[in-house]
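Thread: "does anyone have the structure for this chain?"

Original post by V.I.:
We have the sequence but no experimental structure in hand. Need at least a predicted one for the grant figures.
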Amino acid sequence: MSRRIKGKQPGQPTTARNRITSSVIRTSYGLVLSALSKEATIHCVSPVYGSAVEINTLPWQLIILPLILIWLVRPSSLQGLYSNAFANVISVLGCAVSTVAAFTLRLGPLGPTDGAIVTTFIPQLMLVLSTFRLAALGLLGEGKDMRLTRRESWPLFLYVVLSYILYSVTLEPLIRAILYKYFLTALNYVGRYGLQAILACLFTNLACSKLALLFNIPLLLMAISNPHIPLLRSNTDILNNNIAKTGYRIVDRQESVTGYLAVIDNLKDQFRVLRCDHSLLGGEWTKYPPGIDPKLKEPIYSIFVTLEAVRLVQTERTLEAPIKAAKDQQALIIGLGIGTSPAAFIHHGIPTTILEIDPVVHRFAAQYFSLPSNHTAVIGDAIDFVASSQSTQRDRYNFIIHDVFTGGTEPLELFTQIFLIQLRNLLAEDGTIAINYAGDLLLPTALSVVKTALSVFPICRIFRETAAAENQGEQTTDLTNMVLFCRRDPSPFTFREPTEEDFLGSHARREHLMPRHEIDIARFLEKGEDGGEGKGAGQGVVIKGKEELGKLKKSQKRNARNHWELMRGVLPREVWVNW
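Reply from O.Q.:
Generated one for you, tokens below.
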């Protein structure tokens, strides 16, 4: 039974039950906004820090747990967190989120680790303190001069702890899944900063401060002047003016499910690239010297050409068998990029199916690069498609290309043993799969990918994009592309010499179609499985599930940092930060 509280102040709930109900509603609303805002912040800074931001943000508990400890020792020290003055502070912080993020993104000395932490700290601090205040107001009622004894603080303490558990275990993953599945299309209209600004408005108004309206107005005006909000074409013009001195120009851009995508032209050297956050998915030359007229546009990155070598694989048995006509073969491409490899397969007359999770990547590849239209496009999750194809398309594909690089943190779910087994089932008996891995070959993740592939396929050969350094034993990093050519048939295989028809009139294919820099598999097999890191730590594990993915997290952090530093040398810093 609830009973009325004597001496209640105006505005306070009249019963304990009402107070608890009010607290649950307020705090739930605050936690939902917290989860949404955290994801919005990660999306907001990922174009500058890449995939490193997702693994370098401060955990929520590093902010909330110190508050709880202070509370337990001296409850009165946190008295001001639910005062009217603090509501004004929350309003100011909430409206400053986008401004602070925009400023810290341009700080030169900050790398992907420190930068990600600094940029996301203030938004997370604001979210935690605001949610804390909502819980206090709901449980204790509103008032300026309330004093908490240690005994009175325990219900609020337990409530915040339970809220944190709910948030971290259930709510945050759920909100992330919903955001990715349903709400990311909103980014096409308001952009990353726009989404963050909207959430900041909701938070500041939730603080019940009169300053909220005053600070919300600049946030709304920012939509027509901030180059990071692609509402108007004029915002892109502002962006191009900012980077004009670098010799680059934004042709088109759009927010999408895999990140911030932009088609960028180099006006001096005459090439075009496709950017995804802090990485490049591929590029083509847009102008050629006199006398050069390739049938397809020339790629600027050789590794995508080397993947086409799956067509050149031969064994003693295939030498004696009749050559199959191109129309009787099938190719499956997992990960489109700008479409360099699939364009070649299509041009050779091979029916090609492309699996690409991002519809904008597919549209940009067709509109601004050389991807032909005569192919089968499957837009969605490769894991779902491959799993659903086990019974209907078994033994179907003569060639499979697995190229899902995302810029530092590999989507290891697409390198697990079960996924590769399912791909093996789709591969024809005499077929070949090419698996591209981009990363540091001295880290455990690279070895884990190799060990997982060797646990699935009876034979593989491994090639790297460039020759290994002569002083390889002294290296601390070895960042490159590694391609694994694997087959269901255990017979040894070689690569036939390519013909003029294979080159398609392309200088890049003439130079890089034939794999050249082979890696001795024994180099990987000699390593242990203790999950170490660094030089000589090519230790790794067969990637079976979540346990192995967790072991490789530290390796992914270093890989993301190395890739970020590499990308800063590929395009000017101004192009990366003025996205």
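V.I.: this helps a lot. Residues 1-8, 10-14, 528-538 have pLDDT under 50 and may be disordered.
O.Q.: and Residues 16-224 form one domain.
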